[in-house]
Amino acid sequence: MIDIQYSAEVRTAKDAGQPIVALESTIITHGMPYPQNIEVAAQVQQDVRDAGAVPATMAVIKGKLHVGLEDDQLKALGQAQGVAKISRADMAACMSTSGTGATTVAATMIAARYAGIEVFATGGIGGVHQGAETSFDISADLHELAQTPVTVVAAGAKAILDLAKTLEVLETLGVPVIAHGQDEFPAFWSAKSPYPAPLRMDSAEDIAKAHATRRALGLPGGQLVANPIPDADQIPAEELAPIIAAAQSDADTHRITGKGVTPYLLQRIYEQTGGRSLTANIALVRNNARLAAGIAIALTKSA
Ligand code: PSU
Ligand code: MN
Hints:
The protein has helices at about 10-15, 25-30, 35-50, 70-80, 90-95, 105-115, 130-135, 140-145, 165-170, 205-215, 235-255, 260-270, 275-300; strands at about 5, 20-25, 55-60, 65, 85, 100-105, 120, 150-155, 175-180, 200, 225. The chain is of the alpha/beta class. The protein folds into 2 domains: about 1-115, Indigoidine synthase fold (3-Layer(aba) Sandwich); about 120-303, Indigoidine synthase domain (Indigoidine synthase fold, 3-Layer(aba) Sandwich), CATH 3.40.1790.10. Strand 3 (about 55-60) and strand 4 (about 65) form a beta hairpin. The protein is globular, with a radius of gyration of 18 Å. Bound molecules: pseudouridine-5'-monophosphate and manganese (II) ion (MN). Pseudouridine-5'-monophosphate (PSU) binds near residues 24, 31, 124 and 140.
């Protein structure tokens, strides 16, 4: 048995059967610069509350799995140096060696399932990287979606990835990819991509029903809900394309590999857009938090 450290708020919500939304912490430690990372994390938690659910930000702190962070814990994590980025492969080792690590989408799903939380909001999932045919860089997030029954709300996959290959792998793995309110798969900083999403749903209730039906069928694995960035906050894909290409080529030149790739690319794009990529990132995460709260509420009502 793992001794989970619940925040006071999450503990109360669990006891009362209230809707809870899981949140990841890699976006805080490896996805956004300090101090915006802490402000955004607190804001996203508040967005979940304002929408009627309770936020549970996940992290491993000194070997303990935390489900929900107190304010001081969140602040410390956001400023700490050398925090590990933990995915499925690293989670147990981080805990067993009393390490401190931020959870990626994959690790957050594992933590959520363990804590009985079925809905999770993030920015973008990891996916198949450009050049994967030679690098084999495919995020463990995709395999996690295939085996852990959590509905993940994201703004599609980051445009730094190969979206066509990412969609193919998700199809192979049997992961339902549901675009919210549009036919196209969204591309993180842009609402639309050239690729149609395999499924479309227009309400949180419909998404909750599909989740509950998968549960009733006993299907392992979760759903990916692809929620487009709000119109006003988009960065046009044409504008980003050369910036992404340059960032990718820098990553290749500097031989960045493995876990380092995604944080490196995000940081380069942040610098090259004069911070606009971060503004868009914040808007889309908040938008996802609100939809995830709606799904968690609908699931609680139908239970
Ligand atoms: N989305 C963001 N910023 C991030 C990430 C996603 O807006 O930092 C993180 C998530 O934690 C995701 C991880 O699980 O990047 C994917 O990393 P990799 O490509 O190494 O699997
Ligand atoms: Mn990778």
